[in-house]
Write a structure and sequence with these properties.
This protein is 37% helix and 28% strand. It has seven helices and eight strands. The structure holds 2-acetamido-2-deoxy-beta-D-glucopyranose. It is a single-pass type I membrane protein.
Amino acid sequence: MVQRILFTVLCSLVLVIQASHLEYDGWLNIELYHALDVHEPQKFTSRGNVTITSLNSGASAVSQEPLTVHERNQLRKLAEENRLYRLEAHVLEADGTRSKFLTSSKACALAKSQLADVLWVSLDHAGSVTAVTQSVNNGNTDNCRDLTARDFEALDDFNTDVYVKPMESAPIPDTASFIQKMEREREARERGETKDNRGFFAKYWMYIVPVAILVLISGATNPEAAGGQR
Ligand SMILES: *[C@@H]1O[C@H](CO)[C@@H](O)[C@H](O)[C@H]1NC(C)=O
């Protein structure tokens, strides 16, 4: 019984702590376009879509077209000439904000890695996107000189991992926004609008945790009593 209550309290705590990464969770869509044509560097064609369904958990869904034979040959040309593979990310955020980010990596590294790449989506403290960066393993590439036809034979599907990178907590206290927040709360109080609609555990966890720990300790030091309740 005691253990079950404690377990419930701890689970709720974990949820509350996770939920407090951002003040609210959000989603966003990213359309990916890449420039493959050596002769037309401004021509971007569709590569696929990424949907991040939860900014807090980083859960994402990736849907990408396989390369056509023509696109594979274009990528091969980029790689053989040691050009950059350029990727443009069109971001649509939950509040309707649209932004574009350009990122690039060595075409031969992308070919050598068999189209495996990582997309980092960086967020500011409010959960807005500040950067989309493509990262490709460059470990086994010697300036594109050791490319062979075999590297290109099976290039069709991108294998993309997406990571959401929230902003690190600032090392100095953000007094300006704290004061603004206090001001907003004061104004809301004056208008009689304040309501604390956080969950029960979000409001009272600092009281519940010590009590739960005390209960656990007394249960552990008195196993007979705990056993006797069953
Ligand atoms: C990506 O999204 C666009 C617009 O919603 C759609 O036209 C396209 O088919 C999608 N591509 C993939 C690979 O899902």
